[in-house]
Amino acid sequence: MAVVPAMREALDVLVVGAGLAGLACARDLAKAGRRVRIVEASDAVGGRMRSDLYEGFVIDRGFQVFNTAYPQVRARSDLGALRLRPFTPGVLVHTGRGTLRFTDPTRRPREAGDLRPGRLAGARDLLALGVLSARDMLAPVGWLKSGQELTTRSALASAGLSEEFVELFFRPFLSGVFLEDELETSSRFFHLVWRSMLRGTLCLPTRGIGAVPEQLADGLPPGTLRLGSPVEQVTDDGVLLSDGRELAAPTVVVATGPGPARVLLPGLDIPPYRLTTTYYHAATTSPLAEPTLLTDHLRRFLNTCVLTEVVPGHAPRGISLIGTSVLGADAPGRERELRTALAEVYGADTSRWDLITVRTVYDALPAMPPPQRLSSPARLGVRRYVCGDHRATGSVQGALASGARAAREVLRDLGR
Question: Would the pLDDT of 276 be above 70?
């Protein structure tokens, strides 16, 4: 490839990647008065957090929910402008005894009937759950971060929760949160996530989950973002674009997903990532007339939801959109097996449902077994930095916090 001489734009910092981490980093640097440019390979911002308009449906790239309790979200987002639509504060659990409701009794006490002893759990489990939830909700964040680190499964057992209740509720529910079904994720991260769910609201923006990074991008100075500009290599003078042009900048922050980050920063330590697939079906009748997540105690899927009960505009008028996520990739016969499971849990005829599309996210979330660092340094060398959820935690909060940390370290070094 012929290399075109470097383009000189009097930049202070070049950020590679316009996902949440890159956008947060660039916004903080620009706010501090630094001249910043973001180059993004794709045609839009968001990375793995995007929404597509597909045949009249709003399709998120993988089933995602938005948690309003994350500190970085509250600090950076205009929640009102996102026009958030909430899920029910709880989940439905399909069990061998039928479908039971797990509801936050502090928010909807009238719907907490299944939390009576003997329904979803026994009295000892309900007491242990109440103690665990009160501690995670009220304790200082620093205390949760510094507590003894176990696997999530061991932490739940230490909290006094029975194996039966863990298998019935926590394992199916948390599989959809951590994208792993063995509860091997760090207990420190579990406690922080459980705290955020108790304190916040799970919801979806009216225009889809992609509205979140779009709002961040709208806050950048004009001309900061350059789309359709894949980077081939980080050079001594900046970056080499795939079209042969070299973009010069003294400081480079790599804020891509794990795959490109490995290429651009050889030797970078990146954890393995979880793979998930979401199937989007359309039906003429809603199989569940409420905006509630549904899990399966047999773990035939991670979770399912009638998305148009959350945001009616996600489908053409008169059509219901159902999103169901599973671990792993799509495979021959898997969608047929999924229809059978959905027919059982929804109590509906799924044979006439139309499969709209399938979305597989190969780098959905980093694996987070103990020991798990909740934040890692961004600085890799002289004027070279990295950020992303693989440098913090697999969450919106983790990605934004990693971008913020990268900006702080860049500003500190530039100040020197």
Answer: yes
Tell me the pTM. 0.94
| Structure tokens that stand for 268 in this block | 């970078």
Bridge partners of 58, per DSSP, are: 53
Tell me the residue length of the chain: 416
According to DSSP, the residues that pair with 204 across neighbouring strands are 85
What's the distance, CA 12 to chain centroid? 30
With b for 16 or more beta-carbon neighbours within 10 A and e for fewer, the 12-25 pattern comes to bbbbbbbbbbbbbb
How far is 184 from 408, CA to CA, in rounded Å?
32
Contact predicate 306/287, CB 8 Å: yes
b/e sequence 379-396, b meaning 16+ C-beta within 10 Å: bbeebebbbbbbbbbbbb
* 72 contacts 213 by C-beta, under 8 angstroms: no
Hey, CA dihedral for 286, 291, 296, 297, is it positive or negative? negative
Task: Provide CB contacts within 8 A for 112, sequence distance 6+.
Answer: 103, 104, 105
Poorest-pLDDT segment among 99-113, 231-245, 333-347, 358-372: 99-113
* pLDDT tens-digit map of 119-138: 788 899 999 999 999 999 99
For residues 327 and 275, is the Cβ–Cβ distance under 8 A?
A: yes
Beta strand residue intervals within 140-284, DSSP E: 202-205, 225-226, 231-234, 238-241, 245-248, 251-254, 273-283
